[in-house]
UniProtKB/TrEMBL annotation:
Superkingdom, taxonomy of origin: Bacteria
Residue ranges of DNA binding: 27-46
A Pfam family recorded for this sequence: TetR_N
Protein name as annotated: TetR/AcrR family transcriptional regulator
Start and end residues of each HTH tetR-type domain: 4-64
InterPro entries: DNA-bd_HTH_TetR-type_CS, Homeodomain-like_sf, HTH-type_TetR-like_transc_reg, HTH_TetR, KstR2_TetR_C, Tet_transcr_reg_TetR-rel_C_sf
Keywords: DNA-binding, Repressor, Transcription, Transcription regulation
Keyword hit for DNA-binding: yes
Key word Ribosomal protein present: no
Membrane spanning stretches: none
Length: 191
């Protein structure tokens, strides 16, 4: 395994502590101790504990947006594209379950500017996914029984709830779970 950079070690420690204890209950001293760095190192990379929280969000949503853009750009048929979007989203969420839990539980702590940036990225994800479904509904590849917006909200809602029930040591691998969720969504979209 590659050696983690100082910022990566700090973020990893913060994720573990914020997931276990919550943002408010975690001190900067606990983060630096868990990351084996000094407070100076933390403040060199992150101006505050709030900056660290935002980095957790930025990192997770950044990976998911990059995956989405790559999948859509591949130009595959609608069913394959939707399957790949859902599989990618479920796998990154399951593999980052602590980050996702922190993301869902603590996002209200973001200041107005960061919340606006987060919402803009989330909206772009939703709109890009919805456009794939709408196009397939328009050309008859998918049924229009359920509006594209509703289908996407259901798919994203299931994924957003993963941190409340998914356990990495549970009976299903992220890959198996992702495939099952994708098949469920696609079953509702088939003509």
């Amino acid at each position: 395994m590659a050696r983690r950079t100082t910022p990566e070690r700090i973020v990893d420690a913060a994720v573990r502590l914020f997931a276990a204890k919550g943002f408010d209950a975690t001190t900067v001293q606990e983060v630096v101790a868990a990351a084996s760095v000094t407070k100076g190192a933390l403040y060199h990379y992150f101006g505050s504990k709030d900056d660290l929280l935002f980095e957790i969000y930025r990192s997770l949503i950044g990976r998911q947006m990059a995956d989405l853009d790559r999948i859509v750009a591949a130009g595959e048929d609608a069913a394959t594209t939707v399957r790949r979007i859902i599989v990618s989203l479920v796998e990154t969420t399951a593999e980052s379950v602590d980050e996702t839990a922190v993301f869902v539980r603590e996002m209200h702590r973001l200041d107005a500017e960061r919340m606006a940036a987060f919402r803009a990225e989330r909206r772009r994800y939703h709109e890009t996914f919805r456009a794939v479904v709408e196009k397939a509904q328009a050309d008859g590849s998918f049924s229009s029984r359920v509006p594209a917006d509703t289908a996407v909200l259901i798919a994203l809602g299931v994924v957003n709830q993963l941190p409340t029930w998914y356990r990495p040591d549970g009976p299903k691998s992220p890959e198996r779970l992702a495939t099952e969720i994708a098949e469920f969504v696609l079953a509702g979209l088939r003509p």
